[in-house]
Design goal:
There is one protein chain. The chain is an alpha+beta fold. The protein has 2 domains: 167 residues, NADH Oxidase (3-Layer(aba) Sandwich); 48 residues, no CATH class. Helices cover 44% and strands 13% of the residues. The chain contains 11 helices and 6 strands. The strands form 2 sheets. Strands 1-2-4-3 form a 4-stranded antiparallel beta sheet, sandwiched between helices. Helix 2 packs across helix 6. The termini are far apart. The relative contact order is 0.17. It binds flavin mononucleotide. Flavin mononucleotide binds next to strand 3.
């Protein structure tokens, strides 16, 4: 590999089993300080992260995120949140009122949050920690908001488990580069790449039915994409100050 940063990036795999050993608080600070170096739209820095180590709270989070056992196991849970609450304060301090009416206003904060949390993931893995994003935090966002006492305009985008790996899973293959990297214009005819990837995932034995039948990527992805999911989010977003017009 041509650079140690690329080595860390290419070694990524989500960790879902953790040792009980704690993560020193200074490491959490180092990871979040790295996330803060990320680029941020208009220098607004519209994200926050709530670090949870309390076992009872992690237990409740595990329940709220769809009974994910690794949330109970991992010594640290980070709740990455889109955060325009601080801008409410800035506006108030200057006699203004923040406008978070439009999709764009939420999108800016969600993109900032996603960029920051991925930087944090790389920092954590560079320190030898394991991590896994937890989209399950959006299963019952209203309960997460209450548990973490999130003020208006703070909305959980993703959780992240953090801890010392107690497993060493194989890397999951990714789509062929040709499927995602387009030159000059978008190339629509990707079926060949998708079939090749489907076969690669089947060979790797990533998806298995209870019957032992091995599935490829296409069927699983298609079923997930066709499903209706988290249909109540718009309402919770509106309650939290993002009506999304
Ligand atoms: C936004 C986001 C949410 C995710 N949510 C979950 C989750 O709730 N539970 C989980 O076990 N993995 C979750 N993952 C991890 C993905 O399943 C994982 O990244 C993907 O299968 C690829 O595997 P890899 O990270 O090991 O390469 C999430 C990943 C992302 C980016």
């Amino acid at each position: 590999m041509i650079h140690p940063v690329l080595e860390v990036i290419h070694a990524h795999r989500s960790i879902r089993r953790y040792k009980p050993d704690p993560v020193p608080w200074e490491m959490v600070e180092t990871i979040v300080a790295a996330a803060q170096r990320s680029s941020t739209s208009s220098y607004l820095q519209t994200w926050s992260v709530v670090a949870v180590t309390d076992p009872e709270k992690r237990d409740r989070l595990a329940e709220l995120c769809g009974q994910q056992e690794h949330i109970r196991q991992a010594p640290v849970f980070l709740a990455w949140c889109a955060d325009r609450y601080r801008l409410d304060l800035a506006c108030r301090m200057h006699g203004l009122e923040q406008n978070t009416e439009y999709v764009e206003d939420f999108l800016v904060a969600a993109v900032d949050t996603a960029i920051a949390m991925q930087t944090a993931a790389i920092a954590a893995e560079a320190l030898g920690l394991g991590m896994c994003f937890i989209g399950g935090i959006r299963n019952r966002p209203e309960d997460v908001i209450a548990l973490l006492d999130l003020p208006p305009r703070v909305f959980p985008i993703s959780g992240m488990t953090l801890g010392w790996p107690a497993e060493d899973p194989a890397l999951k293959p990714r789509l062929p580069l040709e499927a995602v990297l387009h030159r000059e214009t978008y190339h629509r005819h990707q079926e060949e790449h998708l079939r090749a990837f489907d076969e690669e995932v089947r060979r790797a034995g990533i998806y298995r039915r209870r019957t032992g039948e091995v599935l490829g990527w296409l069927e699983v992805a298609a079923r997930k994409a066709a499903r209706e999911g988290r249909s109540h989010l718009r309402q919770v977003l509106a309650q939290q100050g993002y009506p999304l017009r």
